[in-house]
Design a protein that fits this description.
Blueprint (H helix, E strand, L loop, with lengths): L1 H18 L1 H19 L27 H7 L4 H33 L3 H12 L6 H12 L5 H8 L13 H29 L3 H9 L4 H25 L7 H7 L5 H4 L2 H11 L3 H30 L5
Length: about 325
């Protein structure tokens, strides 16, 4: 019986492949790019386990084992503030971005003037296309302590005696980075939620309206539950990126006065790998970050599946 099922299953798979061959051809470039730039570079992980010297053959290098991992966790206390900064800002950014996009999509759905809604969506989507270099220039022009437009206005009006050092004071670092990220990605993230709202059948709204439900009740009992599944999927997918930070953003906004609250794992890896040329140590930290990210996404997916019966795998 089993011998007859296997060939039938193979024929079914081949038939599906032939029928959808053009779709697979369209996906082929994406698979090639992922393989070239995401999987082939994994061979470089060997650097973390040997006494690597640029230009040397891997086979001739001295094997050091887990020495670099031991140096990071046992001989250095850097991981304490690195994990603190990375988790604080990335978890804060994840929650803030999803919540603001969720609420913004709800409000956008309630706008009845179509032109006004499209205008607001375009304005909020525009920051997504602005590079972090430009955003840093704007931030410096607006929030610089002595010459920033906002601080000059506050001091000139007598609201404060001295301008706020948003770009240099460590106590503002986390909130400032989270707020900038929320502003930049609000329009982009809200598109996903707006799409999930569009997938909700109008029959539910019509039935609720006939039963006497007002706009708030229709939003509370129909729109929000229809968006929850999208919110959970985005939460699971983004949980795997908790330890990954936007390198350009943190590289530009980190300075000698706020580095203790701004330095994250990606900046640390860059510093030891490309500035101090300690490739084995930087590679070891990168490997650790990758495995922790995999554990996080699997754990969040399992928790979501058990708590809400919704998961991505």
């Amino acid at each position: 019986m089993g011998n007859t099922i296997a060939p039938a299953r193979k024929r079914k798979v081949m038939a599906t492949f032939v029928k959808q061959r053009y779709l697979f051809l369209m996906l082929l470039p994406a698979f090639v790019l992922v393989f070239l730039f995401s999987y082939i570079p994994l061979s470089g992980w060997i650097i973390a386990f040997v006494n690597y010297r640029p230009g040397s053959d891997y086979s001739s290098l001295e094997w050091t084992g887990l020495q670099q991992f031991t140096n990071f966790f046992a001989k250095s206390s850097d991981y304490i503030y690195l994990l603190r900064n990375t988790l604080a800002m990335n978890i804060g950014s994840l929650i803030t971005n999803l919540v603001t996009a969720f609420i913004f999509a709800l409000l956008m759905n309630e706008i009845r003037v179509r032109f006004f809604g499209k205008l607001i969506q375009t304005i909020t989507f525009f920051p997504f296309f602005i590079s972090w270099v430009i955003i840093y220039s704007f931030s410096s022009a607006l929030f610089a302590t002595s010459a920033g437009a906002i601080n000059e206005t506050l001091v000139g009006w007598g609201i404060v005696e001295e301008g706020f050092n948003f770009l240099g004071d460590p106590k503002y670092a986390w909130v400032f980075m989270i707020a900038l990220g929320a502003w930049k990605y609000l329009g982009y993230n809200s598109v996903i939620f707006i799409s999930s709202i569009a997938s909700i059948s109008n029959e539910y709204y019509e039935a609720a309206q006939i039963d006497g439900a007002n706009r708030f009740q229709r939003m509370w009992y129909i729109t929000i539950p229809g968006m929850i599944s999208t919110l959970i999927v985005l939460l699971i997918l983004n949980s795997g990126w908790i330890l990954n930070s936007n390198f350009e953003q943190f590289y530009l906004f980190t300075n000698p006065t706020n580095w203790e609250k701004m330095e994250v794992l990606d900046i640390y890896i860059y510093k030891y790998g490309l500035q101090l040329l300690n490739f084995p140590y930087a590679t070891a930290v990168g490997i650790m970050k990758t495995f922790v990210s995999l554990i996080l996404i699997v754990a969040v997916n399992a928790i979501s599946k058990k708590a809400t019966d919704k998961a991505i795998f």
